[in-house]
Amino acid sequence: MAAAIDFYFDFSSPYGYLASHKIEALAARHGRTVNWRPMLLGVAMKVTGGRPLPELPLKGDYARRDFLRSAKFHGIQLRIPAVFPISTVPPVRAFYWLQGKDPRNAVELAKALYRAYFVDGLDISRPENVIQVGERLGLNGAELGAALNDPEVKDRTRAEVEGAIAKGVFGSPYVVVDGEPFWGVDRFEQIERWLATGPF
Amino acid sequence: MAAAIDFYFDFSSPYGYLASHKIEALAARHGRTVNWRPMLLGVAMKVTGGRPLPELPLKGDYARRDFLRSAKFHGIQLRIPAVFPISTVPPVRAFYWLQGKDPRNAVELAKALYRAYFVDGLDISRPENVIQVGERLGLNGAELGAALNDPEVKDRTRAEVEGAIAKGVFGSPYVVVDGEPFWGVDRFEQIERWLATGPF
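Predict the joint structure of the above. Result:
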């Protein structure tokens, strides 16, 4: 059986959000499954010396325009949240906590968190909002709330984020197919060809 | 008649080089012409606080891989030059000098300079190499050499580069269609749709 595709993303990344709508179908067309791997762009930026796109002179204005236009291009609903960008430690912890218990539901939680942020404008940097999203999916809110401060969940999250950076992940989305890295939802056509015909 | 498309690029930019192979056909499919407008990424980076991709930790390694893979994806010959990236003041001056006399030939010179750098590995930051490329196209080498130090050509070049930055151009390629900016050869599909169906 062909290896799963690694899909790294940051919950505050509009391009990661767009990619989250496309990655499963892309993989399925080529008989692959997807490992959803939320990471923290802010930690990666300490290595690359980068700064959030929206803060950069000239690039920031362009980026806001491109987020919205790219969403329309792909036919995906997107609003730039009032609080943007954000640090997303709580959603990442929620994801890895649930993944340890129920991997398939963890993917549904990731999609719901993205939607809450980029469609409903809910500030998912706040634990109470992450809990609210989880409860709507049928998770136990008290259990989820406790998980967000559980040392084991924190360690797992840290290990995942550091592991991503050790593998060279510096952006969102960042997809790895059989060892080959692809950065950006605008590389999905290259991924498609790579999966269809092999390395080029 | 529909307005021309503005095509901004840096002669040291691999993605600009790839775009240079595609922009004319893209425009022609929609009854448009192209204004070729070389600029200097190094000057723009002083505004955005950016640094050349190849110098960035993690991103640099990825970028080199992506340059080559993207070239193969588009079916365009590309080698990463031994001296890379470079400052490209002489080729930009050569372009604007020739454009003042013979706009169509200036586009041919731009293509020849790109090819000299990204296929033959010629360091086009050196005036003598720019002159060599011009001579191969039938230009008078002595005249071109003199133009590279002509105060009028220098002023024109400075005005073009500053004008580009004033319009928000911060990357290469950077295409403006009826006031709408598109950054990157990976936005050419969005340009195509914009030209075909109008704003989205």
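The interface with chain B takes residues 44, 47-51, 56-59, 61-62, 65-66, 69-70, 72-73, 165, 168-171, 181, 183-184, 186-187, 189-190, 193, 200 of chain A (CB under 8 Å).
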